[in-house]
Structures are given as C-alpha cells and as structure tokens.
Write a structure and sequence with these properties.
Elements: E1 2-10, E2 19-26, E3 29-37, H1 44-65, H2 73-93, E4 102-109, E5 114-119, E6 123-128, E7 131-135, H3 141-147, E8 178-182, E9 191-195, H4 197-200, H5 205-213, H6 218-230, E10 240-248
Antiparallel strand pairs: 1-10, 2-3, 3-4, 4-5, 5-8, 6-7, 6-9, 9-10
Helix pairs in contact: 1-2, 5-6
Length: about 250
C-alpha cells in the first residue's frame, strides 16, 4: 500500500502567503499537514511554518521509536500540542510575533489506522468508493450557526462569520485538536484532501468527488480543482493550499 500525493500552496491575491504545508510519506505510513496563519495577526506565517514542520519532526521521531504508537490518537494530539508549545516559545523570544497564530489539519496513517486531527477551519476531507465519507467540522462561528440549524453547511462559504474562529493554535488559551479515528484499513482508491479555507471556499465537495473520480493521479485531480478555483476567485482572494492523497496498491 502507498499514498500518492500532490500539493499546492499559493499566495492568491494577498501581499504574502501565510499558509504552509509539509508532509512525509513512506511505504508504511504518512503524515500530512496543512496550516493557515491568521492573516490579521502579524507574523502568522511564522506560526504556520513552525507548526507544520514541528508536527512532521515529532511524527518522524515517534515513528522511528515505535511505529505502532506513532499513529495512536494520543500521539497525534501530542504532535499538535508540541507544535503549539514551540510556537509559544518563538513568540516569547520575539515579542513582535505575540499575536501570531494558525490553524492546522493533519492526517496520520499507517494504512491500518488513520487519525485526522484539526484546529480551526482548515479542513480534512476523506473519500471512500468515490464519495465523501467524512469531513471535519470547522471551529468557527459559522459552524456553530450550522449546528444550531440557522444555516446550511454549504452556506458557511458565504456566511458573515466564516472567518471568525473559535479555536486556533498559538493562542494564550490552547484547546486541543479534534481527533477523528478511522480504524478500518485503507483501501486502494481511498483519498484525502487537506485544504485551507482559501481553497474550499471555491471548490465544492461534489466537485472534489467528480475531479477525483475523473483523474488518473493526484496531480491531475488537484489541477482540475485549481482550475475551478481560479475561475471563481476575486482580485484579492486568500492564500490557498491543498494536499491531495490517494491510496494505491
């Protein structure tokens, strides 16, 4: 079993890019990370970079020590907690970064068990049999409006509170990630998309299904999705980042 991947991380219509992604993939497991530094807070590109790279480092160390333990939910939550602590340390060393923070989404798998963890509104989509099987719930006021039945899930994209988050990494009040566990072994054709709001705002879930189904590779699928995004963006669109991972025999 192996995971084929493709990724993009682009500035969009903003002055600089505060998104960051990192990953490590091998024949016996993978760790994928996407982060979105909060644009209204100075230095959030530092927080997103530190977060992503630190999670990968923590995963690699854990996998070298005990591959089975490396994919346990408590380990995956620990990688994110350690990344948060590292961001806090950096902020204490460099006071101008004091308000910087980031979202994070991670997929950790050994192909037998998969843990999907996130903080904020960077999403993880999991597809099985060509259909959307699972997606994370945003930590945002708009998601709360969905839970209260005030808006439909699809309407988060245009809701006035879409960018008002209830949980971020690097803040003074740390709340742990949501960790969703998939205990069934992955099969060929299973797929993941990790993406920031600058991506999923313009690419709908049914279109993700369509592009995955009609593509011969993750690169092909991601190119099709980006074409959709580019056809819909405004002049000052957000940074956009995505990883597409498809399981193969």
């Amino acid at each position: 079993m192996k995971l084929l991947t493709a990724s993009i991380c682009k500035q969009g219509g903003r002055e600089y890019n505060q998104d960051y992604l990192d990953m490590t993939v091998s024949d016996d497991g993978a760790c994928l990370v996407v982060c979105d530094g909060l644009g209204s807070y100075y230095g959030s590109e530092v927080a997103s970079r530190i977060c992503a790279t630190n999670i990968i480092e923590s995963y690699k160390k854990a996998k070298d020590a005990d591959p089975e333990q490396a994919v346990k939910p408590e380990s995956c939550s620990g990688y994110i907690q350690a990344a948060h602590n590292r961001v806090i340390d950096e902020k204490e060393l460099h006071p101008p970064l004091k308000s910087s923070c980031t979202t994070v989404a991670t997929v950790v798998t050994d192909f037998k068990q998969t843990v999907m963890s996130h903080i904020g509104d960077t999403r993880i989509y999991f597809f099985k049999g060509g259909k959307l099987h699972f997606q994370t719930k945003d930590h945002s006021l708009s998601q709360i409006a969905v839970e209260l039945g005030r808006i439909a899930l699809r309407d988060i994209r245009t809701h006035k509170d879409q960018n008002k988050l209830t949980r971020v990494l690097g803040s003074d009040y740390y709340l742990p990630p949501d960790c969703d566990i998939y205990n069934t072994p992955l099969k060929p054709g299973d797929a993941f998309i990790l993406c920031t709001d600058g991506f999923w705002e313009y690419v709908y879930e049914e279109e993700m299904e369509e592009d995955l189904a009609s593509s011969a590779s993750p690169e092909d699928a991601l190119n099709k999705m980006e074409e959709r995004l580019l056809s819909r963006i405004t002049k000052f669109n957000d940074n956009y980042t995505a990883i597409v991972g498809i399981v193969e025999e």
